[in-house]
Fold:
Amino acid sequence: MRVIRLLLFIGLTLSHAHAPLFENPIYLTCDGSAIDVGNYGSPYVYDWNRDNKKDLIIGQFDNGNVRLYLNNGEHYNPSFSSFSYLLAGGVPITLPFG
Structure:
């Protein structure tokens, strides 16, 4: 009986917890438009060219390509003006998708 009362108390206590509040999203842009690679994009932040600025690498679900957006801005204020596909031996890198 004690266990049931304890579980009931915990359930009632937690049910009155407030939902988390989030700020409005900030969209990363490239050439003034929001970066959108389609459904299920897989972003990764990494200093690709070792200039101490975070670059953006995004895998595309629909065709398996990998996009690289080099940061032309600052470390904490990124700016992206174009992208290129990652290449290996002159051919775009593709990963399994689907």
Q: What stands out?
A: The chain is about 15% helix and 25% strand. The radius of gyration is 22 Å. The longest helix spans residues 2-15. The chain has a mean pLDDT of 86.
